[in-house]
Amino acid sequence: MYQRKKLSWSSDSSDIYDLSRCEECGGYYCNVMYFQKDFKSWTSGNNDIDKFIKNAQLSSHSGNKALEWIPYDKLHNIKYIEKIGVFKANWIDGYINNWDNINQNWVRYGKNMVITLKCLSNPKIGASNFINKIETDYKFYGITQDPQTKDYMMVLNDKCKKCNNLIIAQKKH
Questions:
Q1: Cα 117 from Cα 85, distance rounded (Å)
Q2: Residue 53 included in any domain
Q3: Which CATH number belongs to the domain containing residue 64 in this structure?
Q4: Region of residue 126 (phi > 0: left; psi between -120 and 50: alpha; otherwise: beta)
Q5: Residue 91 domain flag
Q6: pLDDT, mean of residues 145-163
Q7: Strands 68-69 and 16-22
């Protein structure tokens, strides 16, 4: 799936970097390879959600379009704002942008950003249809789980992509 090459950046340099070229997108440092390496280090506790996130990650060949499992303890200042299961919170880490090959970790943007949490009432039934609708209108970062209620929640940008209004409830456009 990936071609490995050793390249030197300059003739004066003795530094040689291990670069990977993705056959799908042709780019170096494709996120997919790094997501695959990380699959064994996390689980949501729900096979359907794990499969959904992993499939999304395997399709993510560009920076900030990657979904991830977001541990609930990475969210703080969680405030309930709607009876339909909508919350506001701050996300300590922010979203994945790209892999830093030198430091061997994810470069993240939006640290301590305000996000919206939307409860998934039943992640097995109709979750993919609901997620597809949300993905159309809102920037979707990943999924988390409230450890007390055991509810799964989608982690979304706090603004609608279409109208740039703050999310208070699911709007029709």
A1: 8
A2: yes
A3: 3.30.200
A4: left
A5: yes
A6: 81
A7: unpaired
Residue written as token pair 């990475």? 74
Instruction: Look up residue 1 and give its two tokens.
Output: 């799936």
Classify residue 122: in a domain, yes or no.
yes
Three-class DSSP labels, the chain: CEEEEEEECCCCCCCEEEEEEECCCCCECCHHHHHHHHHHHCCCCCHHHHHHHHHHHHCCCCHHHCCEECCHHHEEEEEEEECCCEEEEEECCCEEEEEECCCCEEEEECCCEEEEEEEECCCCCCHHHHHHHHHHHEEEEEEEECCCCCCEEEEEEEEECCCCCECCCCCCC
Amino acid at position 65, single letter: K
pLDDT score, position 77: 96
Both tokens of 78, joined, read: 């969680």
Structure tokens at 20: 């990977």
Mean pLDDT, range 66-78, rounded to an integer: 94
In a domain, 98, yes or no: yes
State the residue range of the domain holding 87. Answer: 43-160
Calculate ∠ Cα 148-154-159, nearest 5°.
125
Tokens read off for 50: 């794990």
In whole angstroms, give the CA distance from residue 124 to residue 36: 24
pTM of the model: 0.72
